[in-house]
């Protein structure tokens, strides 16, 4: 059983880590992940457990008493954190006055300022100690500042508590700002929907809308649910899903996906999918769950944070004891040095900025209509050695055009077309769709029977008492049907009646306009090992390969052949496969990073792929690579900066060249710099 909880008032990354560790110790919990960025707990149990909610609440409150556990909700429904600005203004005023006066009243002003700003932190640390949760930032700051007061360092005690509190406030607001940018991205769900019932407009919650109902979408409104257009024509902005800025025209009967914006006159849409199965629900789930599959850097930092605080505390204690015992001097001076260690002993900057960096990378991709299922795929993309492409619908438009009709016997072309459309009547292959859409043939379905599809080859059926076979050379060979024909440029589909070839249809498929630049950009980004794996004939694959300057192209591949070819060519390489997600699902799953194009129309794509491109633009592939490289660069910058600055201040502290002021600036300041550095990933241009 899987369940999700939303954590309100979770402001500490360390607390999130502790909650996760404690929940993992519960016997019946199979897996648990606490995600600080989305403020959620994801729990998987071995079976349906009664009392799970109480157990989770008890565990959470043992670490973070102020946390409120709520049922699952999407990020954009969360409230923005309130900040008590007046408290900080009063505390800062009293602190500055105490420093300026520097007389007998200074002590009282500083202590009052300390109480105002540090009261909640001290109370919280005491409560946590009672619950057995000692080593958190509240305890460390309380211990450091109270000890400073004990050795008459009043100004520094107040300064540390003040700067720490203000830093935490800015930190929370910065993280909230990053969350808000994702919330804006995810404001695709319309909570209320206008429905037309008995010529009246009725407003309903989106979850209550059933298949077959008619929704009314006014100009400027988002399409709430997947459906088909009832009106003659409409113009929609698909950028919220695909990232494409050019409006798209839909005609009567055409499928329209939820989340896009109607920019013309009001339209009516007949719902063909409930909210739980809609495109927008899948997109929301993809983005919200993307932080669960963690990258190597995230996992490394999680392990590092567990030992960092205890090690620093031990060093702080040993600094006082051994320093005073070996080198002598004033005990107060050695205690002061150990306080610097205490201030720097919380790894919040690292634990927060690393996942935030990945989250910003995923958010940047989502703005371009690219849904990444986990930060680990951003890591993997940076190490890609080879990329494999499907041809039809990925590199090419996947929209076939009949360029020639060639009868081999004395048969009218119209009759040849009728037999071809009948044989493709129940198929979903792009060629079948082209035939049905291009020729408005009145097929007598009562005369159509025994339909059987040979995957990757064609179809066989009985039509008006005749045995009809339509497909490529492989299918003709399977039925021992001889073909005496010279190949022409394009895709040739042969038609046989009663085991005799009676003609062929030649189809052409154009290369997408953006494919040329996309392949060139991929090579410029350092990936030159590029392949095409296609079921199309050799001539077509060679033509596309040569036009795009791709290294190698394999043709005439059935789905099982494509798997075998991919296994052989991808040995000892980090690979990605890019396909449409329908026939390519097995290979998408086999690749280190499976990328599905055209995710707007394919449930299989969303399920099988690691990355889903919501449109059909191949130029999104180099954008993914650029985002991944920038994300890794920023994450490494944050790691080096956070560890480097803290170690430098610690060393200066031991040598007597650093103060508590410097330590708190290093702790809070480096956290803020790392956070802002992470957030900038989202606002960078990648086109």
From TrEMBL:
Main location (coarse class):
membrane
Q: Which UniProt keywords apply?
A: ATP-binding, Cadmium, Cell membrane, Hydrolase, Membrane, Metal-binding, Nucleotide-binding, Phosphoprotein, Translocase, Transmembrane, Transmembrane helix
Regarding the membrane, this protein is recorded as: Multi-pass membrane protein
Reactions catalysed, as given in the entry: Cd(2+)(in) + ATP + H2O = Cd(2+)(out) + ADP + phosphate + H(+)
The enzyme's first-digit EC class, named in words, is translocase
Residue ranges annotated as transmembrane are: 85-101, 107-123, 307-327, 339-366, 634-654, 660-679
Q: Name one Pfam family in it.
A: E1-E2_ATPase
| Keyword presence, DNA damage | no
Instruction: Give GO MF terms, alphabetically.
Output: ATP binding; ATP hydrolysis activity; metal ion binding; P-type cadmium transporter activity
Alphabetized PROSITE patterns for the sequence: ATPASE_E1_E2, HMA_1, HMA_2
E.C. number(s) listed in UniProt: 7.2.2.21
Where does this protein reside within or beyond the cell?
A: Cell membrane
Domain HMA, chain residue ranges per copy: 1-64
Would you tell me the Gene Ontology cellular component terms? plasma membrane
What family classification does the UniProt entry report for this protein?
Answer: Belongs to the cation transport ATPase (P-type) (TC 3.A.3) family. Type IB subfamily.
The cross-references to NCBIfam families, in alphabetical order and at most eight, read:
ATPase-IB2_Cd (TIGR01512), ATPase-IB_hvy (TIGR01525), ATPase_P-type (TIGR01494)
Q: What is this protein called?
A: Cd(2+)-exporting ATPase
